[in-house]
Amino acid sequence: xxESTPSEPAETVVEAPNKAPDGASAEAISTEQVSYVxxxxxxxxxxxxxxxxxxxxxxxxxxxRELEDLDLSDVAPLAHPYPLRNVFRDDVVGGxxxxxxxxxxxxxxxxxxxxxxxxxxxxx
Length: 124
Known about the structure:
mainly alpha; two-stranded antiparallel ribbon; elongated
């Protein structure tokens, strides 16, 4: 087994809490579980932050449980909530604009083409 050097942080084994210490149901989230996940994500949280996120996560999990209880047996699976369809049209050649008319409306034209300022170096 190698010793850890100052540049290498020592690895810590953190046991995952599986039950709230206050005897709450297994579905409720505890402050220990929030603290455990924060340590896994290497996020430092203060005790007030842990309590704050515990209550918020409890509400999120409660809502997820409500969604799990919905009867969706008559609902068809979807890939998108709105009916989408591709709109294809025939590729038909339409009227062609006259080159001289178009170039007459351009800010600058040279030799039958649009004249644009140089982008990368070159003469201006």
